[in-house]
Design a protein that fits this description.
Blueprint: H1 4-33, H2 37-40, H3 55-63, H4 66-97, H5 101-113, H6 118-131, H7 138-163, H8 166-174, H9 179-190, H10 192-208, H11 211-216, H12 225-229, H13 241-267
Subcellular location: Cell membrane
Main location: membrane
Keywords: Cell membrane, Membrane, Transmembrane, Transmembrane helix, Transport
């Protein structure tokens, strides 16, 4: 116990320091959103606003179409998340259950593809979407997000599939169930935490993504929220700090709400009640 207590205290201290490190930017952003202009220009900034105001939020909504941009982002993110899960689930099942050279090669390619930078992909993607006449379109952006999220979704779901005992699928096969019926009725329900986590990853990635949306969407009515946030920065590079912070706070809310609603599903046991000892 004597040797374990210092180590445990050190772990909790490191965890607390990490949480503080993660929380400080958001706290500063939230504080900035409620500060009046004279406090934003102060030479001695404070953590908490001395005279809180909602003027920055009113100005942000008055200057830019934030609601329309948020709806665009929500539509794109939900569509990308649903399509990524629908495609990745059966594909991950095949990769996890088929121990062939092709399956191993595909798995290796999935891991390697995560190292590709955005800049390397944007020109080929632009040319492909141009040939498909999907430039400056919401479906084209959704397609890009689905393709971008699929490698990680496949890798993530394949790990969940491997955690499902084969005995359950063998029992279903004895009862006469085929591969598709086994996947839908036996394996997929046990993958619920993994599917939810994968969908959350795809949603948050699409919601926060900026580079592809900036390049592919030119019509103002179709632009997503991260692109609209750049409109609070002037041509000289000077940011309208108060409204920008207010709009950025609103942009972070959906991700936080979605995670808060489904975090129990993510942290829940994958096989609770599935196998009795």
């Amino acid at each position: 116990m004597r040797t374990g207590t210092p180590a445990r205290v050190g772990q909790y201290t490191a965890l607390l320091a990490y949480l503080v490190f993660l929380a400080l930017p958001f706290i500063w952003l939230l504080s900035t959103a409620f500060k009046p202009p004279r406090e934003l220009g102060s030479l001695h900034p404070t953590w908490l606003p001395k005279d809180p105001t909602l003027a920055n939020f009113r100005q942000a909504f008055a200057e830019q179409p934030l609601l329309r941009a948020a709806l665009n982002s929500l539509l794109v993110a939900l569509a990308a998340a649903v399509l990524a899960v629908l495609i990745a689930t059966p594909a991950a099942y095949v990769l996890a259950r088929q121990r062939t050279r092709l399956a191993r090669a595909v798995t290796g390619w999935v891991v390697v593809s995560q190292a590709f930078p955005f800049v390397l992909l944007i020109i080929p993607l632009f040319l492909v979407l141009k040939n498909l006449r999907l430039i400056d379109s919401v479906p084209g952006l959704v397609l890009v997000y689905v393709v971008w999220a699929l490698p990680f979704a496949l890798w993530m779901l394949a790990g969940y599939v491997r955690a499902v005992p084969r005995e359950l699928e063998e029992a279903a096969a004895v009862d006469g169930a085929g591969r598709v019926r086994t996947l839908v009725s036996v394996t997929a329900p046990l993958l619920a935490p993994g599917i939810v986590a994968t969908g959350l990853f795809a949603f948050v990635t699409a919601w926060n993504e900026f580079f592809f949306a900036l390049v592919l969407l030119k019509t103002p009515e179709k632009q997503t929220l991260p692109v609209v946030l750049t409109h609070f920065v002037g041509a000289e590079g000077v940011a309208d700090l108060g409204p920008l912070a207010a709009a950025a706070c609103l942009a972070t809310l959906p991700s936080l709400v979605v995670f808060a609603l489904i975090q129990r599903r993510i942290t829940g046991s994958l096989l609770t009640g599935a196998v009795k000892s």
